[in-house]
Amino acid sequence: CTLAGCGSTSPEKNVETEQAPQAAQTQPLSLVPYPNSVEVIPGTLTLHNTVHVEAADGSETAQPALNTLLEQLDIELSDTAPSQIELIRVQEPALGDEGYRLIIDSHVSISANTDTGLFYGVQTLRQLLPAQASKDYQLPLVAITDTPAFAWRGNMLDVARSFYPTEYLKSHIERMARFKLNRLHLHLSDDQGWRVEIKQYPKLTEIGGASAVEGGRSGFYTQAEIRELVAYARAHHITLVPEIDLPGHTQAALASYNELACDDVTNLGPYSGLEVGFSKLCLTKPEVIYPWVENVLAEIIELFPSEYIHIGGDEIKDPLYAEFIGRATKIVDKLGRTAIAWEEGSVADNDPDVLLQLWNDEYDIQPALERGHQLILSPCTYAYFDHGNYAEQPNTYDWCRKEGVPLERAYSLDTSAFGAAVGVESALWSELVHTNAAADNRLWPRLAATAELGWSQVDSRDYSAFTKRLGQLRGQLDAMGIQYYPEPDLGW
Ligand code: TNX
Question: What positions does the domain Glycoside hydrolase family 20 catalytic occupy (predicted)?
Answer without folding.
Answer: 150-319, 320-457
